[in-house]
Amino acid sequence: MSAIPIPRVLGTPGRAVGALVALVALVATLLTVLPTQARAANNPSITVSGLSLVVSNANGVEEPDNTSVKVDDILKLKFAWDARNASARSGDSFQIQLPEQLRNRERLSEPMKVSHQGAEHTIGECVMDDRAITCTFNSTLDTIIGQGFTGLQGNGTALVLASQASDSANVTIDANGKQTEVPVPGGKIAENVGLEYKPQWMSKWAADVTSTSKKVDWEVTFGPDQVKEALEKNGQSLTVDGRTRSTITFSDELGPGQVYVPTKSDWKLSIGAAQGRNNFYGQVTDASGADKDVSQGDFDLDVTIQGNTATIAVTGPFAPQTNYHIYYSSTPTTADGVVQAGVEYTNKASVVGSGLEHSYSVHYTKSFTINVEMKPGFGGLDITKLLTGSETAKVPAGTTFQVGINYTLPGGATVDTYPGWKAPGTVNQTHTGGDTSMTVTVGEKAVYNGTFPVGTVLTLDEDTTTASATPAGVVWGSHTFTVGDQNTNSLTVEDQKSTAVTLRNSADPAAVEEGDFTVTKALAGDGDFSKSTFEFTYTCTDGTEGSLTVTGAATSEKSKKVKAGSTCTITEDSAKAGQNGYTLTAPAAQTVTITKDQTAAVTMTNTYARDMGTFSVTKVVTGLESVDNEFAFSYTCDNNVKGTLKVKADGSVTSGPELPVGTKCTIEEDAQSAAVKGYTLEAPASQTVTISEKEQAVLVTFTNAYTPEPKPEPSPSPTPEPTPTPSETPTPEPTPTPTPEPTPTPSETPTPEPTPTPTPEPTPTPTPEPTPTPSESPTPEPSPTPTPEPSPTPSESPTPGETPDPSESPTPAPSESPSPDPSATPDPSDPATPGAPSSPSGTPPAAPSDPAKPQEPSGGPLASTGVRVGLPLAVAVLAVMGGALLVSRRRA
C-alpha cells in the first residue's frame, strides 16, 4: 500500500503552528483596534441634552413671544453637551442630526474654545452641513487635560430653518445617538402661504443674508387706507375704491456699502393679504412695464434711480383693506460682491407728503455658537462686532479689535471669596476686581472664554488702535455698546448666562491734508476771444478727478480739494477751444503737485493765428494766334484791401495778397489794357471770390475773346479823285494813251515783264528823248505811298490778282519798276524824265483825309491795301504809254 503524500505546508508541524499563532494575533489586533477607531469617530459617552427650539431672527435674537411657525421661518436650536465622564481625547466627536422638518440655515464651521490657566485654547471644531452638526476635539484637548484641565462641558446654539410643514407638536432630533422629542413653538409648522391680514401703514423689511449672499432683498409694505389717512392729514388726497387709478410716491434711500440693482424688471409690485384672504395674491406688474396680472386693475410701477436714492411711483386702482408690497434689491460694493460679515446694510423709505417713514437694517453674523458650560453662581458675556459708515467696503474681512473689560466683584467681595475660581486678567491691589480683555472679530459673535461671579459689574471699552487692519483713508468713528435695547457699556453678570452685547464702529473717511489748484486762461496771437469759455479736465493720483470751465482771459477757476502730496494732470479740451478761421496752438497738459493748505496756480495759454489764403488769376485768350501782352487787373476786398496785378496769357497764374479766410474780393480786368489793334474784344465780367481755405489760393480765370475787324472789298466803281494837297500847280488828270495805229507785233516791241528781274533780251530804249508832256506818262514815286489813280476803264488795264493779306504783299521797291535797263533810267530830278513828279502834288497819296478811303486811325492796314492795288495799276499804265511813244517815234 502506497503512502499518501503529505501537503508541504502540513508537513512541517513547526511552521503550521507559527502560522496559526500569527493568524490569532492578527484577529486579536483587529478586535482591539476597530472598536478604538469607531470610538474615535463618535464618543457615545458624550451626552447632548437640554434641546429646545425658539423663534429667532437671522442674527440669533430670540423672539419668544412668536408662537406661529411656518415654512422658511428661522428657529434657534439650543443644546448642552457634557464630556466630563466620556474620557474624551483627540479625535472624539459628538453629533446632532436634524429631522426632515428642519435643516441648518447655512453650512459653516466654528471653533470650540476654552479658557485654561488664564489663556484661551481652541480644543476642537464644530461643522454644520445640511442636517447635521458634528463637533470633534483636537490634540489641544489632550494637552490641557495633561495640565489638569477638568470640566469639559458646555452648551451651544444653531440657527435652523423650518423646511417642511408638520402638524406634529414635536420634532425628533438625534442627540448623539439618543432620539429626543423637541417641542415646536406654537405646536406645528404651517405652510408658508403668506401673512395673516393685518392693516399696514408703511413698513420696511429685508430678507436675511448669509455668508454667501450677493444681494440684499428689500421690501416696502403699505396699506392704501392708512396712506390715504396720512396724506389727508397733510392736506393731500388719495382715492381708494378699487376702481379709480391713483398714485402713491415713495422716496427710498440706501445706506452705505450697497447700490441699487438697476434692472427695471427686478422692481416688482405685488398684492398681498386682504380682509378675508390671509395669503398673497401675487405679482401684478414690474417697473419695465410688463404686466403679470391685470384682473385686479391696471397697475404701473415707475422707478427713477439717482445714486443711493430712488423715487418709486405706484399707480393703480388701490383696493381698500388690502396690503401691497414693493420688492427690489441692492448689491454690496465689496470687491467680491458678497455681503460683508458684520456690516449693517440699511434702507429707509417714506411716503412723499404723508410723514410716514420707516427704516430697516440687516447684517450677517455666524449662526452657530459653542462654549464651555458655566458652573452655578457664575456667568459671562458675548460680543457681536458690527460696522457702519461709508468706508466699510475698505475694511478687510476678519478684522479684529481688542475690547477691554473692567470687572468689580459684588458686595465688596474679593477674588479669595470664590474658591476654585481663577480671576481673569490682572487683579487690582484690593483684590475686589481687575482688568481683562477679549478679541472681537467683525461680523462674528465672540464668547468670552471665562466666567465671573454672579452680580459682578462689567464695564466695556474698545481700543480702535488695536485694530488688526486700518485701511488707508479710513478712520474709526466712536464706538457704541448695546446691551438688550439700551446703548450702554456696562452690564451685570447673570447666573449661568452669557449676556449678549453688540459693539458697533463706524468706518469713516480719514481726514487728510489737502490742497487745491486754480486754472487761469491766457490768450495770445490774433483775434479777441476774451468772452469765450474754455473747458479743462483733471485727474489726480489720489483718485480725485473733475472738470473746470474758465470764461475769458485772465480768469481762474479752483479745483476740488486734493490730498496733499498728490499730483494732478490738467488737460484742456482743445476741440472746444478752436475758433473758426483761426489755427489754435493749444497748451500741453500740465502736472501740478498739491501742497497742504496751498493753492497751486496753473496757467494755460492758447495762441491763435488767423488762417490766411489768397486768390490767383490766370488769363485765357481766344481769337489771337499769339499774345505777349500783360493784362491788368484790379481787386477790392471787403476788408478794405485794394490793389492791382498783371497777368500774361501764357498759362501762368498771378497770386494776390495774403488775406484772412472768409474775405471776399471782387476782381476786375482793365479793358483798355486788353485792347488789340484790328480786333474787337468781348471783355469778361468782374468776378467775386471768397478766400475759403487756409494756405490755399482760389483760382479765378478771365477769358478774353478777340474778333478781327472786317476788311473793305475793292469797289468796282471809279474811285473818286483824292483831294490834293493845296498847291500852286493843280495835278493834271491822267490821260489814256491813244492808239492811232495797230499795235506792232510783240516781237518788234517787247513789253517788259512785271517781275523784279529785268528782261535780258535787248530792247530799244523806252525813252530816247525827253517826253514833251510828263503828265502823259507818269512814273510812280519810289515811295510805296504815292499811287496813281486807276484808269476809268479798268477792264482795259491789266487787273492785278486777288488782293493779298497786308502781311504777305510788301510794297514794291523802286527797283521793281518795269524799266528795261536800270542804267537807262533818266534822273528823277530831271523835269523831262518820265516818272518824275512834276510837282509835289503830281500824284497825291491816298491821304487820311480822303473820305472815300476808310482806314485805321493809325493809317495801317487799309492804307497798305491802297498801295498794293494802285502800284500794279500804275505799272500797267506806264507800260502801255511807253509802248505808244516808241511806236510814234519810229513813225516819225
From TrEMBL:
Keywords: Cell wall, Membrane, Peptidoglycan-anchor, Secreted, Signal, Transmembrane, Transmembrane helix. Residues 832-841 have a biased composition (Low complexity). It holds the Pfam family DUF7926. GO terms for biological process: cell adhesion. The keyword Membrane applies. The keyword Signal applies. Gene3D superfamilies: 2.60.40.1280. InterPro entries: Adhesion_dom_sf (IPR008966), DUF5979 (IPR046022), DUF7926 (IPR057686), Fibrogen-bd_dom1 (IPR011252). Residues 706-866 are annotated as: Disordered. SUPFAM superfamilies: Bacterial adhesins (SSF49401). Residues 517-609, 615-707 form the DUF5979 domain. It is found in: Secreted, Cell wall. Residues 713-831 have a biased composition (Pro residues). The chain crosses the membrane at residues 869-887. Residues 201-377 form the DUF7926 domain. Its main location: secreted. It comes from the Bacteria. PANTHER family: PAXILLIN-LIKE PROTEIN 1, PAXILLIN-RELATED. This is Uncharacterized protein.
